[in-house]
Amino acid sequence: MDIFEAVDNRKTIRKFDSYIPTKDEIKRIINSARLAPSAMNTQNWKFIAIYNNEIKNKMADEILKTYDRIIPNLDDETKAYVERYKAHSTFFTKAPVIIVCVETEAKAFMNGVLEMAKFSEEEIKKMRPDSFLLSMGGAIENMLLSAYAQNLGSCWMVAPVLGVDGIKKVLNLDETDKITSVIAIGKPASDISDKRSNKKPLDEIMEIIE
Ligand SMILES: Cc1cc2nc3c(=O)[nH]c(=O)nc-3n(C[C@H](O)[C@H](O)[C@H](O)COP(=O)(O)O)c2cc1C
Fold first, then answer.
1. What residues of the chain score a pLDDT lower than 70?
2. Which domain holds residue 176?
3. Distance from the CA of 60 to the CA of which of 4, 24, 51, 124 falls in 20 to 30 A?
């Protein structure tokens, strides 16, 4: 598939049919993450593909526990909104496969250099975007495109990270591991609409300085 076909036509899919992606399809997706650029080529990431529904449900339970802490403290309007948002955090239990994207521990070299050179924490924060998180983003986008190229739909999800502490226990992750996203993957359901999300016009987001 032409790269532009994938970039132009990929869209978020939140409803899947009963097809279960093969391990080869999932491996190809994770291989696309493996080949992504990363800050100083650190590759401090791991990707856990989960077919097992019991584990997916345990993860969702951990997210719901966090909502139980959030919701009682909200005003009525916010509460109603957050109740709806909940579904966007846990629908991955209905996805045939999910990939949990984990950033593993690493120290950004240049941050250490700036600390040694006595730059303040505030200055370092401004000068050093989170390059490891950015690297995760690149790897994840590669995976979404790779899924699309194999006729699979996907949804990049950050909301599940609300259940991070419990999910880390469910998945036996290390203390220092950071869950950055979950990707839901499967064949798009036949009744999903053709609608695309609105995108800002190019002129609004672009500037060319000659
Ligand atoms: C960093 C990131 C986090 C997201 N988190 C969620 C999420 O938790 N739940 C969800 O349903 N969609 C999530 N999305 C999907 C966005 O809602 C979706 O990409 C956006 O509405 C644009 O639609 P499109 O992907 O079809 O272009 C996330 C997307 C990104 C890039």
1. none
2. 3-205
3. 24
